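User: Round two. Same drill as before: sequence, then structure, for each protein.

Assistant: Same drill it is. First protein:
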Amino acid sequence: MKKNTIVVFLVLAVIALTYQNCGKPMESLESQSTLDTAKEENDNELGTIDTGEPTTPGTEATPAPQPPTSTPLSACNEIRLKTDDPAQLALIEPNGYERHIVSWEEVFTVPAHNGLPEVTFPFFDSPGSFWPVGSFTLGGKNPNTQVSMKGKYISIPFIADDFESTSARHKLEWWKAVAIQGYSAYRPHPSNGVYITISTCAGDFRTTSAAAYPPGDQTLTTYCRRFRSESNMYFGENGACITVPGKKYYLNIVFAYPFDGLDPQETSCDPLGFEYLDGRCDTMITTR
Protein backbone atom coordinates (compact mmCIF):
# COMPACT_ATOMS: atom_id res chain seq x y z
CA MET A 1 0.00 0.00 0.00
CA LYS A 2 2.79 2.34 0.81
CA LYS A 3 4.59 1.46 -2.39
CA ASN A 4 1.46 2.18 -4.44
CA THR A 5 1.06 5.54 -2.78
CA ILE A 6 4.60 6.51 -3.72
CA VAL A 7 3.98 5.56 -7.39
CA VAL A 8 0.80 7.62 -7.54
CA PHE A 9 2.64 10.57 -6.02
CA LEU A 10 5.39 10.35 -8.60
CA VAL A 11 2.90 10.22 -11.46
CA LEU A 12 1.11 13.30 -10.16
CA ALA A 13 4.45 15.09 -9.81
CA VAL A 14 5.36 14.28 -13.42
CA ILE A 15 1.99 15.58 -14.65
CA ALA A 16 2.44 18.78 -12.69
CA LEU A 17 5.94 19.35 -14.08
CA THR A 18 4.74 18.69 -17.66
CA TYR A 19 1.97 21.28 -17.25
CA GLN A 20 4.40 23.89 -15.93
CA ASN A 21 7.30 23.27 -18.32
CA CYS A 22 5.45 22.30 -21.49
CA GLY A 23 2.06 24.09 -21.37
CA LYS A 24 3.43 27.54 -20.80
CA PRO A 25 6.19 27.30 -23.47
CA MET A 26 3.51 26.34 -26.05
CA GLU A 27 1.59 29.52 -25.26
CA SER A 28 4.87 31.45 -25.52
CA LEU A 29 5.65 29.94 -28.96
CA GLU A 30 2.19 30.78 -30.21
CA SER A 31 2.61 34.39 -29.02
CA GLN A 32 6.03 34.64 -30.72
CA SER A 33 4.58 33.31 -33.95
CA THR A 34 1.84 35.92 -33.82
CA LEU A 35 4.41 38.68 -33.29
CA ASP A 36 6.54 37.44 -36.21
CA THR A 37 3.51 37.39 -38.48
CA ALA A 38 2.54 40.91 -37.47
CA LYS A 39 6.11 42.13 -38.09
CA GLU A 40 6.19 40.56 -41.55
CA GLU A 41 2.87 42.18 -42.46
CA ASN A 42 4.17 45.53 -41.16
CA ASP A 43 7.38 45.16 -43.19
CA ASN A 44 5.35 44.41 -46.30
CA GLU A 45 3.25 47.50 -45.75
CA LEU A 46 6.35 49.63 -45.27
CA GLY A 47 7.79 48.15 -48.49
CA THR A 48 4.98 49.67 -50.54
CA ILE A 49 6.04 53.23 -49.65
CA ASP A 50 7.04 55.12 -52.88
CA THR A 51 10.65 56.19 -52.35
CA GLY A 52 11.01 57.63 -55.84
CA GLU A 53 13.33 54.80 -56.90
CA PRO A 54 12.42 51.85 -59.18
CA THR A 55 10.95 49.00 -57.12
CA THR A 56 11.32 46.34 -59.81
CA PRO A 57 14.85 44.88 -59.95
CA GLY A 58 16.67 45.59 -63.23
CA THR A 59 14.39 48.43 -64.39
CA GLU A 60 15.78 51.86 -65.34
CA ALA A 61 14.24 55.30 -65.39
CA THR A 62 12.75 56.31 -68.78
CA PRO A 63 15.22 58.71 -70.50
CA ALA A 64 14.07 62.21 -71.27
CA PRO A 65 12.84 62.65 -74.89
CA GLN A 66 15.50 63.97 -77.28
CA PRO A 67 14.84 66.76 -79.80
CA PRO A 68 14.38 65.50 -83.39
CA THR A 69 17.45 65.51 -85.64
CA SER A 70 17.27 68.38 -88.13
CA THR A 71 17.25 67.57 -91.85
CA PRO A 72 20.39 68.81 -93.63
CA LEU A 73 19.78 71.78 -95.88
CA SER A 74 19.96 71.27 -99.61
CA ALA A 75 22.80 73.00 -101.45
CA CYS A 76 20.32 75.47 -102.95
CA ASN A 77 18.85 76.34 -99.54
CA GLU A 78 22.34 76.80 -98.10
CA ILE A 79 23.00 79.34 -100.86
CA ARG A 80 19.68 81.08 -100.18
CA LEU A 81 20.75 81.62 -96.56
CA LYS A 82 23.85 83.44 -97.85
CA THR A 83 21.84 85.64 -100.24
CA ASP A 84 20.13 88.83 -99.04
CA ASP A 85 19.26 90.54 -102.32
CA PRO A 86 15.70 89.61 -103.44
CA ALA A 87 16.69 89.98 -107.10
CA GLN A 88 19.49 87.44 -106.60
CA LEU A 89 17.22 85.08 -104.65
CA ALA A 90 14.87 85.04 -107.64
CA LEU A 91 17.74 83.66 -109.77
CA ILE A 92 18.09 80.52 -107.62
CA GLU A 93 15.88 77.80 -109.16
CA PRO A 94 13.93 80.57 -110.97
CA ASN A 95 10.15 80.42 -110.99
CA GLY A 96 8.48 79.40 -114.24
CA TYR A 97 11.47 77.35 -115.39
CA GLU A 98 11.69 73.59 -115.88
CA ARG A 99 14.85 72.04 -114.48
CA HIS A 100 16.36 69.25 -116.56
CA ILE A 101 19.12 67.35 -114.77
CA VAL A 102 21.00 65.39 -117.41
CA SER A 103 24.06 63.23 -116.71
CA TRP A 104 27.43 64.06 -118.21
CA GLU A 105 27.44 60.75 -120.09
CA GLU A 106 24.00 61.40 -121.54
CA VAL A 107 24.94 64.88 -122.76
CA PHE A 108 28.21 63.76 -124.29
CA THR A 109 27.15 60.56 -126.03
CA VAL A 110 27.59 60.60 -129.81
CA PRO A 111 24.85 58.51 -131.44
CA ALA A 112 25.74 55.82 -133.94
CA HIS A 113 26.06 57.35 -137.40
CA ASN A 114 27.64 56.72 -140.80
CA GLY A 115 28.33 53.11 -139.79
CA LEU A 116 30.16 54.19 -136.61
CA PRO A 117 29.07 52.85 -133.19
CA GLU A 118 27.67 55.00 -130.38
CA VAL A 119 30.41 56.52 -128.21
CA THR A 120 29.94 57.78 -124.62
CA PHE A 121 32.35 60.23 -122.99
CA PRO A 122 32.59 60.16 -119.16
CA PHE A 123 33.48 63.19 -117.02
CA PHE A 124 35.60 65.17 -117.91
CA ASP A 125 35.90 64.13 -121.54
CA SER A 126 33.87 65.24 -124.54
CA PRO A 127 33.83 64.51 -128.28
CA GLY A 128 36.93 65.75 -130.10
CA SER A 129 34.97 68.48 -131.83
CA PHE A 130 32.56 70.87 -130.15
CA TRP A 131 29.32 69.11 -129.21
CA PRO A 132 25.83 70.71 -129.25
CA VAL A 133 24.04 71.17 -125.91
CA GLY A 134 20.55 72.66 -125.64
CA SER A 135 17.49 71.83 -127.74
CA PHE A 136 19.52 69.02 -129.32
CA THR A 137 20.06 67.49 -125.85
CA LEU A 138 16.45 67.71 -124.64
CA GLY A 139 15.14 66.58 -128.03
CA GLY A 140 16.90 63.22 -127.72
CA LYS A 141 19.61 64.24 -130.22
CA ASN A 142 17.07 64.24 -132.99
CA PRO A 143 18.41 66.64 -135.68
CA ASN A 144 14.82 67.67 -136.48
CA THR A 145 13.91 68.43 -132.86
CA GLN A 146 11.33 71.12 -132.23
CA VAL A 147 12.17 71.43 -128.49
CA SER A 148 12.23 75.04 -127.33
CA MET A 149 14.59 76.25 -124.59
CA LYS A 150 12.05 78.81 -123.39
CA GLY A 151 11.46 78.36 -119.66
CA LYS A 152 13.97 75.51 -119.45
CA TYR A 153 17.49 75.03 -118.16
CA ILE A 154 19.92 72.13 -118.11
CA SER A 155 21.96 71.11 -115.06
CA ILE A 156 24.78 68.61 -115.58
CA PRO A 157 26.05 67.07 -112.29
CA PHE A 158 29.68 66.14 -111.72
CA ILE A 159 31.99 65.30 -108.82
CA ALA A 160 35.05 67.57 -108.66
CA ASP A 161 38.21 65.53 -109.03
CA ASP A 162 41.57 65.73 -107.29
CA PHE A 163 44.58 66.71 -109.42
CA GLU A 164 48.04 65.33 -108.75
CA SER A 165 49.68 68.44 -110.18
CA THR A 166 49.23 71.77 -108.42
CA SER A 167 48.91 73.48 -111.80
CA ALA A 168 46.39 71.09 -113.39
CA ARG A 169 42.83 72.27 -114.07
CA HIS A 170 39.94 71.70 -116.46
CA LYS A 171 39.02 73.93 -119.37
CA LEU A 172 35.42 74.34 -120.47
CA GLU A 173 34.87 76.09 -123.82
CA TRP A 174 31.74 77.00 -125.75
CA TRP A 175 31.06 78.46 -129.18
CA LYS A 176 28.14 79.41 -131.40
CA ALA A 177 26.46 76.35 -132.91
CA VAL A 178 27.97 75.27 -136.21
CA ALA A 179 27.84 72.19 -138.40
CA ILE A 180 29.78 69.15 -137.10
CA GLN A 181 32.31 67.61 -139.44
CA GLY A 182 31.52 63.93 -139.96
CA TYR A 183 28.05 64.28 -138.36
CA SER A 184 25.98 65.78 -141.13
CA ALA A 185 22.69 64.89 -139.44
CA TYR A 186 23.09 67.80 -137.02
CA ARG A 187 21.60 71.13 -138.08
CA PRO A 188 23.06 74.04 -136.12
CA HIS A 189 20.75 76.42 -134.26
CA PRO A 190 22.95 79.14 -132.75
CA SER A 191 22.25 81.56 -129.91
CA ASN A 192 23.40 85.11 -129.29
CA GLY A 193 24.55 84.15 -125.82
CA VAL A 194 24.21 81.45 -123.20
CA TYR A 195 24.54 81.84 -119.42
CA ILE A 196 26.69 79.08 -117.91
CA THR A 197 27.42 78.72 -114.20
CA ILE A 198 29.23 76.23 -111.98
CA SER A 199 27.61 75.80 -108.58
CA THR A 200 26.74 73.24 -105.89
CA CYS A 201 23.09 74.12 -106.62
CA ALA A 202 21.26 72.87 -109.72
CA GLY A 203 19.68 76.07 -110.99
CA ASP A 204 21.92 78.70 -109.38
CA PHE A 205 21.88 81.57 -111.89
CA ARG A 206 22.90 84.41 -109.57
CA THR A 207 24.97 87.12 -111.21
CA THR A 208 28.06 89.00 -110.09
CA SER A 209 30.57 91.43 -111.54
CA ALA A 210 33.20 90.60 -108.92
CA ALA A 211 36.23 88.41 -109.50
CA ALA A 212 36.65 87.84 -105.75
CA TYR A 213 34.03 85.60 -104.15
CA PRO A 214 32.38 86.31 -100.75
CA PRO A 215 33.37 84.15 -97.75
CA GLY A 216 31.83 80.69 -97.91
CA ASP A 217 30.49 81.12 -101.46
CA GLN A 218 33.40 80.15 -103.74
CA THR A 219 31.45 79.90 -106.99
CA LEU A 220 29.91 83.39 -106.76
CA THR A 221 32.58 84.91 -108.98
CA THR A 222 32.85 85.92 -112.62
CA TYR A 223 35.24 82.98 -113.08
CA CYS A 224 32.36 80.54 -112.37
CA ARG A 225 29.48 82.26 -114.23
CA ARG A 226 29.46 83.91 -117.63
CA PHE A 227 27.00 85.07 -120.27
CA ARG A 228 28.66 84.90 -123.70
CA SER A 229 28.02 83.42 -127.09
CA GLU A 230 31.64 82.19 -127.03
CA SER A 231 33.86 81.95 -123.95
CA ASN A 232 35.65 79.58 -121.57
CA MET A 233 36.17 78.70 -117.89
CA TYR A 234 39.12 77.16 -116.09
CA PHE A 235 38.00 75.26 -113.02
CA GLY A 236 39.21 72.73 -110.48
CA GLU A 237 41.01 72.98 -107.14
CA ASN A 238 43.72 74.97 -108.97
CA GLY A 239 41.40 76.79 -111.38
CA ALA A 240 40.21 80.37 -111.42
CA CYS A 241 36.81 78.85 -110.63
CA ILE A 242 37.61 76.83 -107.52
CA THR A 243 35.95 73.46 -106.93
CA VAL A 244 36.60 71.21 -103.93
CA PRO A 245 37.70 67.62 -104.75
CA GLY A 246 35.00 65.07 -103.97
CA LYS A 247 32.22 67.66 -103.81
CA LYS A 248 29.17 67.61 -106.11
CA TYR A 249 28.69 70.49 -108.54
CA TYR A 250 26.43 71.32 -111.47
CA LEU A 251 27.13 72.87 -114.84
CA ASN A 252 24.02 75.06 -115.24
CA ILE A 253 23.02 76.22 -118.72
CA VAL A 254 20.21 78.62 -119.61
CA PHE A 255 19.58 80.40 -122.92
CA ALA A 256 18.53 83.77 -121.49
CA TYR A 257 20.06 87.05 -120.37
CA PRO A 258 20.17 86.94 -116.54
CA PHE A 259 21.23 90.46 -115.51
CA ASP A 260 17.74 91.96 -115.52
CA GLY A 261 16.07 88.83 -114.16
CA LEU A 262 15.03 85.62 -115.89
CA ASP A 263 11.78 85.57 -117.83
CA PRO A 264 10.63 82.09 -118.92
CA GLN A 265 9.19 83.62 -122.11
CA GLU A 266 12.54 84.94 -123.33
CA THR A 267 15.47 83.20 -124.98
CA SER A 268 18.78 84.25 -126.42
CA CYS A 269 18.36 82.14 -129.56
CA ASP A 270 19.55 83.84 -132.73
CA PRO A 271 16.55 84.76 -134.90
CA LEU A 272 18.86 84.92 -137.93
CA GLY A 273 20.08 81.36 -137.37
CA PHE A 274 19.60 78.47 -139.77
CA GLU A 275 15.96 77.28 -139.90
CA TYR A 276 15.11 79.53 -136.97
CA LEU A 277 12.33 78.35 -134.69
CA ASP A 278 11.45 80.51 -131.69
CA GLY A 279 13.29 79.14 -128.65
CA ARG A 280 15.21 76.39 -130.46
CA CYS A 281 18.98 76.76 -130.06
CA ASP A 282 22.21 75.13 -128.85
CA THR A 283 25.68 76.05 -127.73
CA MET A 284 28.71 74.00 -128.78
CA ILE A 285 30.79 72.72 -125.83
CA THR A 286 34.14 71.03 -125.57
CA THR A 287 36.18 70.13 -122.48
CA ARG A 288 39.67 69.06 -121.56
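Second protein:
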Amino acid sequence: MIKHFFARLVKCLMVVLMLPLLIGVVSGAAYRLEGISFADITGYRWVIWGFLTYVGVHLILFRPYWLFSFSHKIFSTLAVWLFGGQVASVEDEGRSRSRMNTADGDGSPLVAFSPYIVPFYTLAVCFGAVLLRKWKDITAWSPVVLFLVGLTLAFHWLMTADELQEQRDRWHIETYLLAISMVFLITLGISGWGLQLAVPEFSFTEALQDGFLRTRALYAFASGNPSVE
Protein backbone atom coordinates (compact mmCIF):
# COMPACT_ATOMS: atom_id res chain seq x y z
CA MET A 1 0.00 0.00 0.00
CA ILE A 2 2.75 2.46 0.97
CA LYS A 3 4.80 1.53 -2.10
CA HIS A 4 1.77 2.03 -4.33
CA PHE A 5 1.00 5.41 -2.76
CA PHE A 6 4.64 6.50 -3.12
CA ALA A 7 4.67 5.51 -6.81
CA ARG A 8 1.55 7.56 -7.47
CA LEU A 9 3.00 10.51 -5.57
CA VAL A 10 6.19 10.40 -7.67
CA LYS A 11 4.14 10.38 -10.87
CA CYS A 12 2.14 13.39 -9.68
CA LEU A 13 5.34 15.28 -8.90
CA MET A 14 6.76 14.41 -12.32
CA VAL A 15 3.65 15.79 -14.03
CA VAL A 16 3.86 19.01 -12.00
CA LEU A 17 7.57 19.41 -12.76
CA MET A 18 7.09 18.69 -16.47
CA LEU A 19 4.40 21.35 -16.91
CA PRO A 20 6.78 24.36 -16.79
CA LEU A 21 9.16 22.50 -19.11
CA LEU A 22 6.37 21.91 -21.63
CA ILE A 23 5.28 25.53 -21.46
CA GLY A 24 8.87 26.77 -21.79
CA VAL A 25 9.78 24.58 -24.77
CA VAL A 26 6.55 25.35 -26.64
CA SER A 27 6.91 29.09 -26.05
CA GLY A 28 10.57 28.95 -27.09
CA ALA A 29 9.73 27.18 -30.34
CA ALA A 30 6.85 29.58 -31.00
CA TYR A 31 9.11 32.58 -30.42
CA ARG A 32 11.71 31.30 -32.91
CA LEU A 33 9.01 30.51 -35.48
CA GLU A 34 7.71 34.06 -35.09
CA GLY A 35 11.17 35.26 -36.06
CA ILE A 36 11.03 33.78 -39.57
CA SER A 37 8.51 34.66 -42.26
CA PHE A 38 7.47 33.53 -45.71
CA ALA A 39 5.12 35.49 -47.98
CA ASP A 40 4.88 38.10 -45.18
CA ILE A 41 3.45 35.46 -42.83
CA THR A 42 5.41 34.19 -39.86
CA GLY A 43 6.45 30.56 -39.63
CA TYR A 44 4.44 30.27 -36.43
CA ARG A 45 1.22 31.11 -38.26
CA TRP A 46 1.90 28.58 -41.00
CA VAL A 47 2.37 25.87 -38.36
CA ILE A 48 -0.73 26.92 -36.42
CA TRP A 49 -2.85 27.00 -39.58
CA GLY A 50 -1.77 23.45 -40.37
CA PHE A 51 -2.42 22.38 -36.79
CA LEU A 52 -5.91 23.88 -36.70
CA THR A 53 -6.75 22.45 -40.12
CA TYR A 54 -6.28 18.91 -38.86
CA VAL A 55 -8.07 19.67 -35.58
CA GLY A 56 -11.09 20.71 -37.65
CA VAL A 57 -10.89 17.58 -39.78
CA HIS A 58 -10.52 15.39 -36.67
CA LEU A 59 -13.45 16.91 -34.82
CA ILE A 60 -15.87 17.58 -37.68
CA LEU A 61 -15.16 15.31 -40.64
CA PHE A 62 -13.36 12.04 -39.90
CA ARG A 63 -10.44 10.42 -38.11
CA PRO A 64 -8.03 8.55 -40.40
CA TYR A 65 -7.36 5.59 -38.11
CA TRP A 66 -5.81 3.57 -40.92
CA LEU A 67 -3.01 6.14 -41.33
CA PHE A 68 -2.24 6.03 -37.63
CA SER A 69 -2.41 2.25 -37.63
CA PHE A 70 0.08 2.09 -40.50
CA SER A 71 2.70 4.19 -38.70
CA HIS A 72 1.92 2.39 -35.43
CA LYS A 73 2.66 -1.01 -36.99
CA ILE A 74 5.92 0.21 -38.54
CA PHE A 75 7.36 1.41 -35.24
CA SER A 76 5.89 -1.46 -33.24
CA THR A 77 7.61 -3.92 -35.56
CA LEU A 78 10.87 -1.93 -35.42
CA ALA A 79 10.76 -1.78 -31.61
CA VAL A 80 10.06 -5.51 -31.38
CA TRP A 81 12.98 -6.22 -33.71
CA LEU A 82 15.27 -4.10 -31.53
CA PHE A 83 14.01 -5.10 -28.07
CA GLY A 84 12.39 -8.51 -28.55
CA GLY A 85 8.82 -9.78 -28.51
CA GLN A 86 6.23 -10.10 -31.22
CA VAL A 87 3.47 -8.04 -32.82
CA ALA A 88 0.03 -9.46 -33.43
CA SER A 89 -2.48 -7.60 -35.58
CA VAL A 90 -5.91 -7.21 -34.03
CA GLU A 91 -9.17 -5.64 -35.13
CA ASP A 92 -11.16 -3.42 -32.79
CA GLU A 93 -14.32 -1.59 -33.87
CA GLY A 94 -13.21 -1.59 -37.47
CA ARG A 95 -9.83 -0.15 -36.68
CA SER A 96 -6.66 -2.10 -37.31
CA ARG A 97 -4.42 -2.08 -34.26
CA SER A 98 -1.19 -3.71 -33.23
CA ARG A 99 -0.68 -5.55 -29.98
CA MET A 100 2.78 -5.96 -28.50
CA ASN A 101 3.76 -9.03 -26.51
CA THR A 102 7.08 -10.25 -25.23
CA ALA A 103 8.14 -13.85 -25.49
CA ASP A 104 6.91 -14.67 -22.00
CA GLY A 105 3.53 -13.10 -22.67
CA ASP A 106 4.05 -9.92 -20.69
CA GLY A 107 3.71 -6.59 -22.48
CA SER A 108 6.89 -4.60 -22.96
CA PRO A 109 6.33 -0.93 -21.99
CA LEU A 110 9.18 0.18 -24.27
CA VAL A 111 7.76 -1.67 -27.26
CA ALA A 112 4.21 -0.61 -26.50
CA PHE A 113 5.08 3.07 -26.06
CA SER A 114 7.54 3.52 -28.93
CA PRO A 115 4.97 4.13 -31.73
CA TYR A 116 3.46 7.01 -29.78
CA ILE A 117 6.67 9.00 -29.33
CA VAL A 118 7.79 9.00 -32.98
CA PRO A 119 5.71 11.33 -35.22
CA PHE A 120 6.11 9.26 -38.39
CA TYR A 121 4.35 11.58 -40.85
CA THR A 122 5.97 14.73 -39.45
CA LEU A 123 9.39 13.17 -39.97
CA ALA A 124 8.34 12.00 -43.44
CA VAL A 125 7.50 15.61 -44.39
CA CYS A 126 10.79 16.90 -42.99
CA PHE A 127 12.97 14.23 -44.59
CA GLY A 128 11.12 14.66 -47.88
CA ALA A 129 11.94 18.37 -47.81
CA VAL A 130 15.59 17.60 -46.98
CA LEU A 131 15.86 15.26 -49.98
CA LEU A 132 14.28 17.81 -52.31
CA ARG A 133 16.76 20.46 -51.17
CA LYS A 134 19.60 18.32 -52.48
CA TRP A 135 18.36 18.82 -56.06
CA LYS A 136 16.71 22.22 -56.04
CA ASP A 137 16.01 25.31 -53.99
CA ILE A 138 12.64 24.82 -52.31
CA THR A 139 12.73 27.90 -50.08
CA ALA A 140 9.50 29.06 -51.71
CA TRP A 141 7.89 25.82 -50.50
CA SER A 142 8.91 26.33 -46.87
CA PRO A 143 5.41 27.58 -45.94
CA VAL A 144 3.98 24.30 -47.24
CA VAL A 145 6.49 22.34 -45.15
CA LEU A 146 5.59 24.36 -42.04
CA PHE A 147 1.88 23.89 -42.71
CA LEU A 148 2.28 20.12 -43.15
CA VAL A 149 4.43 19.87 -40.01
CA GLY A 150 1.66 21.53 -38.01
CA LEU A 151 -0.99 19.33 -39.64
CA THR A 152 0.87 16.04 -39.13
CA LEU A 153 1.87 16.90 -35.57
CA ALA A 154 -1.77 17.62 -34.70
CA PHE A 155 -2.70 14.31 -36.32
CA HIS A 156 -0.15 12.43 -34.23
CA TRP A 157 -1.07 14.10 -30.94
CA LEU A 158 -4.84 13.77 -31.33
CA MET A 159 -4.74 10.18 -32.55
CA THR A 160 -2.36 9.25 -29.74
CA ALA A 161 -4.64 10.97 -27.21
CA ASP A 162 -7.58 8.95 -28.58
CA GLU A 163 -5.59 5.73 -28.22
CA LEU A 164 -4.43 6.47 -24.69
CA GLN A 165 -7.88 7.67 -23.66
CA GLU A 166 -9.28 4.22 -24.44
CA GLN A 167 -6.89 2.80 -21.83
CA ARG A 168 -7.90 5.29 -19.12
CA ASP A 169 -10.00 2.70 -17.30
CA ARG A 170 -6.79 0.73 -16.58
CA TRP A 171 -4.73 3.74 -15.49
CA HIS A 172 -4.73 6.22 -12.65
CA ILE A 173 -5.19 9.82 -13.75
CA GLU A 174 -1.56 10.73 -12.93
CA THR A 175 -0.31 7.84 -15.10
CA TYR A 176 -2.43 9.07 -18.01
CA LEU A 177 -1.28 12.67 -17.59
CA LEU A 178 2.36 11.57 -17.34
CA ALA A 179 2.05 9.49 -20.52
CA ILE A 180 0.43 12.37 -22.42
CA SER A 181 3.08 14.82 -21.17
CA MET A 182 5.95 12.55 -22.17
CA VAL A 183 4.47 11.94 -25.62
CA PHE A 184 3.95 15.67 -26.12
CA LEU A 185 7.46 16.62 -25.02
CA ILE A 186 9.34 13.87 -26.86
CA THR A 187 7.41 14.25 -30.13
CA LEU A 188 7.87 18.02 -29.96
CA GLY A 189 11.62 17.54 -29.62
CA ILE A 190 11.79 15.06 -32.51
CA SER A 191 9.62 17.30 -34.69
CA GLY A 192 11.72 20.38 -33.89
CA TRP A 193 14.88 18.51 -34.85
CA GLY A 194 13.32 17.42 -38.14
CA LEU A 195 11.99 20.91 -38.88
CA GLN A 196 15.44 22.40 -38.38
CA LEU A 197 16.73 20.12 -41.14
CA ALA A 198 13.81 20.85 -43.47
CA VAL A 199 13.64 24.61 -42.92
CA PRO A 200 17.17 25.92 -42.20
CA GLU A 201 15.77 29.35 -41.27
CA PHE A 202 14.41 27.75 -38.10
CA SER A 203 16.93 26.91 -35.37
CA PHE A 204 15.64 24.30 -32.96
CA THR A 205 18.85 24.62 -30.94
CA GLU A 206 18.08 28.28 -30.28
CA ALA A 207 14.45 27.38 -29.60
CA LEU A 208 15.55 24.88 -26.94
CA GLN A 209 17.93 27.38 -25.37
CA ASP A 210 15.17 29.97 -25.22
CA GLY A 211 12.71 27.36 -23.94
CA PHE A 212 15.03 26.28 -21.12
CA LEU A 213 15.50 29.91 -20.07
CA ARG A 214 11.73 30.34 -19.95
CA THR A 215 11.40 27.09 -18.01
CA ARG A 216 13.98 28.25 -15.51
CA ALA A 217 12.08 31.51 -15.08
CA LEU A 218 8.85 29.59 -14.44
CA TYR A 219 10.54 27.37 -11.83
CA ALA A 220 12.01 30.46 -10.17
CA PHE A 221 8.63 32.18 -10.13
CA ALA A 222 6.95 29.08 -8.67
CA SER A 223 9.62 28.86 -5.96
CA GLY A 224 9.03 32.49 -4.97
CA ASN A 225 12.34 33.73 -6.34
CA PRO A 226 11.49 35.39 -9.69
CA SER A 227 14.71 37.42 -9.63
CA VAL A 228 16.77 34.36 -10.72
CA GLU A 229 18.38 35.06 -14.13
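Residues 26-61+110-216 form one domain.

User: Perfect.
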